[in-house]
Each structure stands twice: as C-alpha cells, then as structure tokens.
Amino acid sequence: METMRYAIQINEQGPDSEAVAFGYEFIKAALACGHEVVLVFFYHDGVLNAFSELDDSLSGPDWSSLAERGIDLVVCTAASERRGLGGDASRFRAGFKVGGLGSWVDACLKADRTLIFGAPHDP
Question: How far apart are CA 64 and CA 70, in angstroms?
Fold first, then answer.
C-alpha cells in the first residue's frame, strides 16, 4: 500500500458537527494506516475548535492529542479575527498555533491529497 500525505481543512465547530467528527476520525484512521498528515488547518467556523474559553465542558475531538503526535494544528488568524476572537495563541487549547492561508497553501503543495471537512460559514 502506498503511503499518502494529507492536508486537512476543518471549517466547522464541533462537537455536534458531523463534518468535524468525520475529519477527526479520518485523521486517526489515516495515521493508524501509516499515512502522514502534513497539517490540519482550522478555517471559517473551524477556528472555534481552538479557543479554550469556548465551553471546555463540551465533549468533542481531542485535537490536542494529535498535536502530541506531531501533527501541526494551525488556526487561520484572519478567520479568527473576523469572529472577534483575535489571533492570540495564548487563548488556544494545547497544541494549536496561529497561521495564515500561506500555511494552508504550503501544506497543499506538500500533500498528495487535500481534504476539506465542513462548509464555510463566514460572518
């Protein structure tokens, strides 16, 4: 079996989003099969997954566990700012970092496949 490199974009907020759940489960399955995830890019409403003050009591994907495995979790600074949250990484859950669309484009160029989970919802 050929090893694939994936760039993943998450455009919705969990835990009730099927797109977020499918994206997270896809990443775990890909890693279990020996594939590589170049980057997980949180865009549009997906940036909300990164912010620690947004109801930590909700159960949802454990994105931080992916960061512990060496996966880059990048939050789009512009999408974050459009939602009034700013781009201050100190407000993020563990493992998330700030970046821009350049990070996403770079990951897409390095990846064999690009997958986008969720529809964009801009304010």
Answer: 10
Residue 64 CB contacts under 8 Å (≥ 6 apart), including other chains: 73, 93, 94, 95, 96
- Which two three-digit tokens encode residue 62? 């454990």
pLDDT tens sequence across 26-39: 999 999 999 999 99
- Nearest CA to 115 out of 55, 25, 54 is that of 25
Q: Where are the domains of the chain?
A: 5-117
Q: Is the peptide bond preceding residue 15 cis, with omega within 30 degrees of 0?
A: yes
Point out the catalytic residue in the list 48, 73, 76, 98: 76
**Active-site annotation holds for 108:** no
CA angle (37 as vertex; 22, 91 as ends), nearest 5: 75
Is 5-117 assigned to CATH 3.40.1260.10? yes
